[in-house]
Automatic annotation (TrEMBL):
CDD domains: Bet_v1-like (cd07816)
Gene3D superfamilies: 3.30.530.20
Descriptive protein name: MLP-like protein 34
Segments forming domain Bet v I/Major latex protein: 2-153
Native source species: Cucumis melo (Muskmelon)
Protein origin, superkingdom: Eukaryota
UniProt similarity note: Belongs to the MLP family.
GO BP annotation list: defense response
Length: 153
């Protein structure tokens, strides 16, 4: 029986936690314009706000062209965290279960923050690579790029 694995990374960013979290709450679909090589477009399928239970679809290229339907499994304003869960799409060919969570927290230094990314996944078979090399690296780079952008805007 396959088991759920978890990987995580703490990413230091140059903007405050509130700005980073706020961007994901209000402007997440703009990531497609900021990172066009990897994120092509996103849209709501059910719901029209970044609230728990909303369903969105993304087309992306992290390990090859793909599409996924993503549910907002949890939005926690107080802890500045959002959890996404794949419910349909190409990613579920490789993983039976795929959930991503981030939490932004202030460092208390110069308006900088730490973003903790956690990915839980269950491989569809043992030959599938870990999500670390592709997905965790991608969200880490995205965090640094977005943090630098938000620090200057």
């Amino acid at each position: 029986m396959a088991q759920i694995s978890q990987i995580s990374a703490d990413v230091q960013i140059k903007c405050c936690a509130e700005k980073f979290y706020g961007f994901f709450r209000k402007n997440m679909f703009q990531l497609a314009q900021m990172f066009p090589k990897n994120l092509h477009n996103g849209e709501f399928l059910e719901g029209n706000d970044f609230t728990t239970g909303a369903l969105m679809q993304w087309s992306y290229d992290i390990v090859g062209p793909a599409k996924a339907k993503i549910k907002l499994a949890d939005v926690d304003e107080q802890n500045m965290s959002i959890t996404y869960e794949a419910v349909e799409g190409d990613i579920l060919s490789d993983y039976n279960f795929f959930r991503v969570k981030f939490q932004a927290s202030s460092n208390g230094e110069n308006g900088s923050a730490t973003v903790k990314w956690s990915i839980e996944f269950e491989k569809a078979d043992e030959n599938i690579p870990s999500a670390e090399a592709n997905y965790l690296d991608f969200v880490s780079k995205l965090s640094m790029g977005l943090g630098a952008y938000l620090a200057t805007n």
